Amino acid sequence: MSTTTARTGVRAAVAEPTSTDSTQTARILQGSPIAGAMRARVTEDVVAFRQRHGFAPTLAVVMVGRDAPSAVYLQQIIRGCVKVGVEGRVVEVPEGADAREIQRQIRSLNDDPLVSGIIIQMPLPAHIPLRVIIDTIDPGKDIDGIHPINAGLLSLGYDGFLPATAHAAVQILRASGYDLEGLDAVVIGRSNVVGKPTGLLLLREHCTVTVCHRRTRDLAAQTRRADLVVVAAGSPGLVRGDMLKPGALVVDVGINVVEDGIVGDVDFESAKTVAGAITPVPGGVGPVTNAILMEHLIRAARDQHG
Ligand code: ADP
Hints:
By secondary structure, the chain is of the alpha/beta class. 44% of the residues lie in helices and 16% in strands. The strands form three sheets. Strands 1-11-8-7-5-6 form a six-stranded parallel sheet. A three-stranded parallel sheet has the order 3-2-4, sandwiched between helices. A two-stranded antiparallel ribbon has the order 9-10. The longest helix is centred in the N-terminal third of the chain and has 23 residues, at 31-53. The structure holds adenosine-5'-diphosphate (ADP).
């Protein structure tokens, strides 16, 4: 059954190429149109929320110190807020601050009725214990799903806030029309923010899931048998075309800053000649993640204000 579903997906992908490049077989799954449609819905919801409650929800982003990749990501989030009509508030904490000071800032955001969602910019400085910070966030405002309560709800299959990137990795496939039921899925990466939750979400989609990581013995042997490969390893060029099954769906979650700009974890040029569909970097999962944060924010606001 899984093979049939996979083949159906592959045929659909090959039948609808979006580029005229003759060497290309893969359908390129652009995130922007999907994100745009999501944002249009959120914008309407924000208007309705504002009419009912007299204010627009606020997303607070806590940033400890300043590092360049983090700052770029932050700008994108704030731009996303502007697009849907919510407030984006950056809470800057000095690099040298201790965990208690960061906790104090988070608690004051927890208590602020105008703030509906809280994100902590990662990575935190090495001297800050991550667990202590995560535990401090109100789970109802944890719109990036990092609190243990939300992680637990996900693993039990209950409704909570999903980690936005993992949610986006699955959503980009669903919104592109793929039925994932029965697919053999390989996730590369087992981080708490991306790999692990993506594996759980794919189980929810009825995939047969294998999660690979740095100690996986033969990564290529795993990916070559997969109908769906989701890569979240933070390693440019990790997955090449010769590691893929022809027609496979490939979702590249990697965002790596290299000399030429930003690249994913998949070697796009070789992969697109083998895959059935592939997400580009930049422009694939990233924009969808951003829009999903906005969806989570308006949902949090509604939950908090009835
Ligand atoms: P992210 O936040 O993108 O998930 P992390 O650095 O937290 O990134 O985690 C990277 C994950 O990718 C780890 O689980 C690690 O085991 C996995 N990984 C990194 N390099 C490889 C590799 N060469 N092969 C397989 N898995 C890898």
